[in-house]
Amino acid sequence: MSQQLIDSIKYLIRLSAEEEQLLPDLFSRVTLKKNDYFLQEGKVSTQVAFIEKGLVRYVMNHQGEDISAYFSGENEWVGNLESFLSRQPSTRSIIAMEPTVLWAASRDNLQKIYDTVKEGDRMGRLIIEDVFVKSSKQVTSLYTGTPEERYYEFFELFDKIQHRIPQYMIASFIGVKPQSLSRIRSRLSRKH
């Protein structure tokens, strides 16, 4: 069992020693190689996971083109909550960008956490609230922000992992072609 995972849960909620002893039975270790799927588009999401090590990319396919929807790195929770909660096929894939170690909980095991850990429901709510806020900001930015503003927001969102993300994926995330990203970066560097 990962101490990082336990620390992450303890950051969100109080966890008794007895409750902590339950966790190893509720999470399973998942290792992904670069380009392995944690979730494939069209499949129903059946688990959520904590990233101990590595980096994943949320990808949507739009008219045959992969669009970067989000990125998650160490000490973050990963999953497609829309698919997980609705039990409908996922509209995006989650793919490892580098070798990745996850601690995954199935729907049933997550329910056991809610039922047996005193503040388990609170943990789930806090994780979902965090995902919701990030998603809302991203949607608002795509509709109201300029490409330059979205580029700055990218660095705010992914400050700790941005150096591990290729430029063409950054361009996709902010909604421009790689050539446009080069022009944006050039304009911004002249301003500073």
Ordered list of secondary-structure elements with their pairings:
Elements: H1 3-12, H2 17-22, E1 28-32, E2 37-39, E3 47-53, E4 55-62, E5 65-73, E6 77-78, H3 81-86, E7 93-96, E8 100-106, H4 107-116, H5 120-144, H6 147-157, H7 167-174, H8 178-191
Antiparallel strand pairs: 1-8, 2-7, 3-6, 3-8, 4-5, 4-7
Helix pairs in contact: 4-5, 6-7
Account of the protein in words:
The protein starts with a helix and ends with a helix. The strands form two sheets. It has a four-stranded antiparallel beta sheet. The relative contact order is 0.16. α4 (107-116) crosses α5. The chain has eight helices and eight strands, in the order ααββββββαββααααα. The chain has 192 residues and is an alpha+beta fold. The protein has a domain at 3-117: Sandwich (Jelly Rolls). A hairpin with a 2-residue loop joins β4 and β5. It has helices at 3-12, 17-22, 81-86, 107-116, 120-144, 147-157, 167-174, 178-191; strands at residues 28-32, 37-39, 47-53, 55-62, 65-73, 77-78, 93-96, 100-106. It comes from Chitinophaga hostae. Residues 11-113 form the Cyclic nucleotide-binding domain. This is Crp/Fnr family transcriptional regulator. InterPro entries: cNMP-bd_dom (IPR000595), cNMP-bd_dom_sf (IPR018490), RmlC-like_jellyroll (IPR014710).
Strand order, sheet with most strands: 1-8-3-6
Average pLDDT figure:
91
The rounded distance between the terminal residues' Cα atoms is 46 Å
Radius of gyration: 18 Å
Helix content: 40-55%
Structural class designation:
alpha+beta
Biggest sheet record: 4 strands, antiparallel
Number of DSSP helices?
8
**E-strand count:** 8
Pfam families: cNMP_binding
Domain Cyclic nucleotide-binding: 11-113
InterPro entries: cNMP-bd_dom, cNMP-bd_dom_sf, RmlC-like_jellyroll
Organism: Chitinophaga hostae
